[in-house]
């Protein structure tokens, strides 16, 4: 069965998954790189990186994934819909290697990139987007790639089967919040926690099997 998965989703102690303001120079706003330093230190990001607990989680991002859904603000900085040449942050060969569905109110034709990534632009409810992505994933799982708004919307719609969330020991104070409106969301999941020597805490939320 094709699952809906979230991986390496990094959140500050006070629940922000991005700082502010987002811009071409600062995609995560005032958070800079601090939310993802744990991941960039691992072997799965850089061959000379660490091979411990953080890497064990980070390397689960890609296997078994046949499509990604992401939000418009992950795909580009504010104003990208006005730039017909914008093709995402990731260069000619983006690291997805699958169809990627960008949820946006500024729909444009698909962009085929090198390495198997095609960006499709979709104005749809989370459930409709998931149905489309699942059909493209050809039996494999669908990853919800963020940002915070899209993760929150998919959780609120009850569409997430597995979420790997990483709590990073920083206080951002402002940015885009994840948990608003999700009161009690944990009750639908088996939640496990692993502390890493690096200082981050890994949470896995696995959807409870109905009894
Ligand atoms: N912490 C992490 O692990 C992590 C992971 C990924 C990304 N990020 C960061 O998170 C930030 C982006 O998060 P965000 O919450 O600002 O935005 P987002 O979730 O990336 O995108 C939200 C936007 O997507 C469009 N959208 C969402 N649902 C839609 C729907 N159903 N139909 C049509 N359009 C829809 C809307 O944009 P329009 O109306 O403008 O089209 C909406 O404002 C970036 O800084 C990114 O780098 C963090």
Order of helices and strands: EEHHEHEEEHEHEEEE
CATH architecture: 3-Layer(aba) Sandwich
Low-confidence stretches: none
In which range does the helix fraction lie? 10-25%
Strand order of the largest sheet: 5-6-4-3-7-1-8-11-10
Largest sheet at a glance?
9 strands, mixed
- Kindly identify the CATH topology: Dihydrofolate Reductase, subunit A
The CATH top-level class label = Alpha Beta
Structural class determined from secondary elements: alpha/beta
Question: Shape, please?
Answer: globular
Distance between the termini: 18 Å
Rg measurement, Å? 17 Å
Organism: Terrabacter ginsenosidimutans
Pfam families: RibD_C (PF01872)
InterPro entries: DHFR-like_dom_sf, RibDG_C, Riboflavin_Biosynth_HTPR
Domain Bacterial bifunctional deaminase-reductase C-terminal: 6-181
Report a brief summary of the structure.
It comes from Terrabacter ginsenosidimutans. The protein has one domain (about 5-205): Dihydrofolate Reductase, subunit A (3-Layer(aba) Sandwich).
What does this structure look like?
This protein is of the alpha/beta class and 211 residues long. Helix content is 17%, strand content 27%. A nine-stranded mixed sheet has the order 5-6-4-3-7-1-8-11-10. Helix 3 links the parallel strand 3 (65-71) and strand 4 (99-103). 35% of the residues are buried. Bound molecules: NADP nicotinamide-adenine-dinucleotide phosphate. NADP nicotinamide-adenine-dinucleotide phosphate binds next to strand 1, strand 2, helix 3 and helix 5. This is Dihydrofolate reductase family protein. InterPro entries: DHFR-like_dom_sf (IPR024072), RibDG_C (IPR002734), Riboflavin_Biosynth_HTPR (IPR050765). Pfam families: RibD_C. Residues 6-181 form the Bacterial bifunctional deaminase-reductase C-terminal domain.
């Amino acid at each position: 069965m094709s699952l809906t998965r979230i991986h390496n989703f990094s959140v500050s102690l006070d629940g922000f998954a991005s700082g502010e303001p987002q811009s071409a120079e600062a995609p995560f706003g005032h958070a800079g790189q601090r939310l993802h330093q744990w991941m960039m230190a691992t072997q799965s990001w850089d061959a000379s990186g660490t091979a411990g607990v953080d890497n064990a989680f980070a390397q689960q991002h890609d296997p078994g994934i046949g499509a990604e859904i992401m939000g418009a603000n992950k795909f580009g900085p504010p104003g990208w819909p006005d730039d017909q040449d914008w093709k995402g942050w990731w260069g000619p060969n983006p690291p997805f290697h699958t169809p990627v569905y960008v949820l946006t109110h500024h729909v444009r034709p698909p962009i085929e990139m090198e390495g198997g990534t095609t960006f499709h632009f979709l104005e749809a409810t989370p459930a409709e987007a998931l149905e489309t992505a699942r059909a493209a994933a050809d039996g494999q799982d669908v990853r919800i790639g963020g940002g915070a708004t899209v993760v929150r919307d998919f959780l609120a719609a009850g569409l997430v089967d597995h979420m790997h969330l990483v709590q990073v020991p920083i206080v951002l104070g402002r940015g885009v919040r994840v948990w608003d409106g999700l009161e009690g969301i944990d009750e639908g999941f088996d939640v496990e926690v692993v502390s890493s020597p690096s200082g981050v805490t890994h949470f896995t939320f696995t959807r409870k099997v109905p009894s």
